[in-house]
Amino acid sequence: MKITPTQIADVLLLEPRVLEDSRGYFMETFRLDALHAALGFQVGFVQDNESCSRCGVLRGLHYQLPPFAQSKLVRVVAGCVLDVAVDIRRESPTFGACVSTELSAENKRQIFIPRGFAHGFVVLSEVAVVQYKVDNYYSSKSDRGIVYNDPHLGIDWRLPADQLLLSDKDSHQPSLKEAELFPAENLYE
Ligand SMILES: Cc1cn([C@H]2C[C@H](O)[C@@H](COP(=O)(O)OP(=O)(O)O[C@H]3O[C@@H](C)C(=O)[C@@H](O)[C@H]3O)O2)c(=O)[nH]c1=O
């Protein structure tokens, strides 16, 4: 597993080593030891999620407030998405900046998104199945969002606006400026 930092500290790109032979391929899709070594701190995943969406579906930008803040380890097992993580830690030098990366069944890449980030993705293929681990349980009360087209974030979602399909909740999320964000505390304590 090759793990490289992105332009935002603690957001990591993971590329599994694919071992091919006449039968097909084998790869390790998750190594806690390698992730901990790359991060320098521990995460304990407790829930696995999967969603399936059609082309143009945009889910996000989502996060949970403490004490249910979540780290996420995201991968795509069918199709292709543009995956986006936005730094919403007020005290961060990269507050408001985002990392965008294509994750697909073909490239087998994964992204690790720490607590303190909002996360979203848009489906670029006919359908996409996204799987992700989280290190805190789902809490509807702590669930928050930021609107995907906030001009202050300026995210290029690759598809024309009239091709995007959002839930009613996600079309009416607040801007980054209006959103309830994290208090200045260590989100891993
Ligand atoms: C996220 C989640 C949702 N649900 C329920 C709530 C609702 O009835 C249904 C669909 O929920 P949502 O519309 O919030 O699903 P979705 O828009 O796919 O939400 C997800 O988006 C991506 C981008 C993330 O980063 C995730 O953390 C999560 O917020 O599933 C759970 O039961 N457990 C969960 O962990």
TrEMBL record:
<protein>
    <recommendedName>
        <fullName>dTDP-4-dehydrorhamnose 3,5-epimerase</fullName>
        <ecNumber>5.1.3.13</ecNumber>
    </recommendedName>
</protein>
<dbReference type="GO" id="GO:0005829">
    <property type="term" value="C:cytosol"/>
</dbReference>
<comment type="function">
    <text>Catalyzes the epimerization of the C3' and C5'positions of dTDP-6-deoxy-D-xylo-4-hexulose, forming dTDP-6-deoxy-L-lyxo-4-hexulose.</text>
</comment>
<dbReference type="InterPro" id="IPR011051">
    <property type="entry name" value="RmlC_Cupin_sf"/>
</dbReference>
<feature type="active site" description="Proton donor">
    <location>
        <position position="132"/>
    </location>
</feature>
<dbReference type="InterPro" id="IPR014710">
    <property type="entry name" value="RmlC-like_jellyroll"/>
</dbReference>
<dbReference type="GO" id="GO:0008830">
    <property type="term" value="F:dTDP-4-dehydrorhamnose 3,5-epimerase activity"/>
</dbReference>
<dbReference type="GO" id="GO:0000271">
    <property type="term" value="P:polysaccharide biosynthetic process"/>
</dbReference>
<dbReference type="GO" id="GO:0019305">
    <property type="term" value="P:dTDP-rhamnose biosynthetic process"/>
</dbReference>
<comment type="subunit">
    <text>Homodimer.</text>
</comment>
<dbReference type="InterPro" id="IPR000888">
    <property type="entry name" value="RmlC-like"/>
</dbReference>
<keyword id="KW-0413">Isomerase</keyword>
<dbReference type="Pfam" id="PF00908">
    <property type="entry name" value="dTDP_sugar_isom"/>
</dbReference>
<comment type="similarity">
    <text>Belongs to the dTDP-4-dehydrorhamnose 3,5-epimerase family.</text>
</comment>
<comment type="pathway">
    <text>Carbohydrate biosynthesis; dTDP-L-rhamnose biosynthesis.</text>
</comment>
<feature type="active site" description="Proton acceptor">
    <location>
        <position position="62"/>
    </location>
</feature>
<feature type="site" description="Participates in a stacking interaction with the thymidine ring of dTDP-4-oxo-6-deoxyglucose">
    <location>
        <position position="138"/>
    </location>
</feature>
